[in-house]
Each structure stands twice: as C-alpha cells, then as structure tokens.
Amino acid sequence: MHTEPHWITTPLTAELLRGALDLERTVHGLLPHRLPARARAQNTDPQLEMAESQPSGVRLAFRSRATAVELDTLPTKRAYTGAPPRPDGVYELLVDGEPAGRTTVPGGHTVTVDMSTGATELRPGPPGTARFTGLPEHAKDIEIWLPHNEITELVALRTDAPVEPLPDRGRRVWLHHGSSISHGSDAEGPTSTWPALAARLAGVELVNLGLGGSAMLDPFTARALRDTPADLLSVKIGINVVNQDLMRLRAFTPAVHGFLDTIREGHPDTPLLVVSPILCPMHEDTPGPTGYDFAALAEGRLSFQATGDPAETANGKLTLAVVRAELARIVERRAVDDPRLHYLDGRDLYGESDAAELPLPDRLHPDAATHRRIGERFARLAFAPDGPFTDGTV
Question: What phi and psi values does residue 331 have, to the nearest 5 degrees?
C-alpha cells in the first residue's frame, strides 16, 4: 500500500547551495545569482542581467537518508517570437556523485522576446515542483543541479528524512568564466554543459561564471573572479567581443591585460588558464556584429550570421583569428613573470575536423554531443599530469 511521505521542510540557506556567488531574498523565496550585488549594481545590460540569474552550475548539496525529495521553484522561461518553443529547463539529481534522476518544472513566468525589435513581454505564472522518489535509504550525498538556462527562484525544500549541509570533501575549486558556450547553450542538461562535464571528470568543484552573451571583459566581472575563493582559474575570452563588435584591437589588448591584472590581485599564485575561442567558421575571418538569420527564422529555425566586412580587420576590427593570435601573444609575454599563467587554443577543444563532423547547429553554439567532446578534451588537456591544472608545481 502506497503511503504519502512524512515531509520535513528545510529552510533554504547558503549552506545548502554551491556555485552561486550571491543569494537574493525575493517575495517567493531565494534567487541564486552568479555575480555579486556590487557587480549587478554596475551592470546596465539586460542580457547580462538575465544570464547571471540563470543558475548554470548552481546546485543544492546536502546529506540525508531521504528516499523522496521535493523542490518547489518559480522558473522564468524565455520564448522568442517566430522561433520554435524552448524546452523546459532540466533539474538533475546526483546521488553520491552519480546521475539518479531528471525532471522539469512546467509553468512559471514566461518572458517573450521579439527578436526583430528587442521588445519583451512578461506573462506571470505559478510555482511548480521538481520531485524525485525511490532514492536509496542509506545516508548519501544528494545534489540537485538547477536548470542552467532558466532563472530559478527557490521556494521550498521538502524531504522525508532530515537534511544537513554536504561536508567539504576536500576537492579543489575550479572557477571558470566564459560566454554562452561555457554557460551551457544547447547542452542537454545542467550536468552536461562542458564545464560541468570537465569538472566531474577531473573531480573538482565547479563555480561556473559562463555568462551567455556577456563575456565582455567587464571590470566588475574581473573583480568577481578576483574576490571568489578558488584553487584553479580559467577565462575563455573572445567570441562575445567579436560577435558584439564591442571593441577594436587597440582597446582589446589593454582590456585583456586589465582583466588579468584584476584577477591576479586576488589570486597571485593560482593556476590561471586563458582559453581562446573554439572554431566558429562564420567569424574566423569575418568580424561582427553577429545578426539573426531571418530567412532561417521564417522557416522556424534559429540561426545566426556574421554581418561584418573582412576588409575592416585592417582597421582593427576583431575576428576570432585576430583574437587568438593576440591572446597567445599576451599570455606568452606575461608568462615570463607569471609562470602559472597558461594559454589553451580553443581549436584544441573544437577545431576544423570537429566542425566537419559536428557542425554548430545555429552556426554559433555547440550541441549536446559537442559539449561532451569539449568537456572531455578540456579535462584531458587542463588536468593532465603536466597540464596547467596539475596538483604539482607548474
């Protein structure tokens, strides 16, 4: 005979969350942020405001004998006028580090974006529940990874056994910053973004500051990296600077130096890996800005196109080829006095042969299979015995 669990409600606190830099109390509950309040106060970009509020890499982590877990949340979903509906964000359960379930929370708020005008419309909705049952009865580590691409307010946590914060397992903390690719665009779930995959393979704790459309060398992001405790650091720079046509080479070089200088103020001796963009054929030799392919949109497909003029690279416009060459030069020069600073060419993670086998579906973002490939390669290269993230002296 089935009986309803005797539920215990546990207050949601910072001790139960990993991967967030700040927690905001809302009328509904708790909203994880991946940038601190000081950084958010200096931001004026709605894209970054959305991206940092999407909890990529953020998870509840606790220890319990619970066999059933319920998490009430209020998601904020996004829809794009004329584009196919986006799937609901995925919640993934890990038990003692192994996948043990996945679910979605329908409903919630919906923000509809008109890509031709940029106008947005909010339709309010109710909270929902992510439910996991049939867990083993013994004491175990439980993690609930929140949707990487869906703003998620945490409302209530219920279990059928007491909960305590997950103890420190002594794993190194890897702090990573990058673009929508690092954020997890088009990954199949929050534990399948390439940084999450690499972290699991390497046995490290991930703090993911991949910010969709927002890896812009912002000083407030550099200060967030500077002030966040970490044993390992990586910054993946370039694609957003190009596809937003944000700056010319004259501004890019000192901006990179300043970004790295700020990080080093808080992490003077921490292994720091600078990663250049993966291959993106449309922007290899053609500068930004990136635009929507409205012909594809009319067919119900989301796709992008490069709209810059290759001839303008002579006047300092940035392409991915230019960015890679300059990042390699900057790191080589700085590494003379900073032996724990390293460079990784993004094409070693996804290059020409990969693009032939696994082309970018929208010409800009990798699909689920490519996230897996990038994560596996990053783990192999960065965490190799002689790699930049080795346990020994670099």
Answer: -65, -40
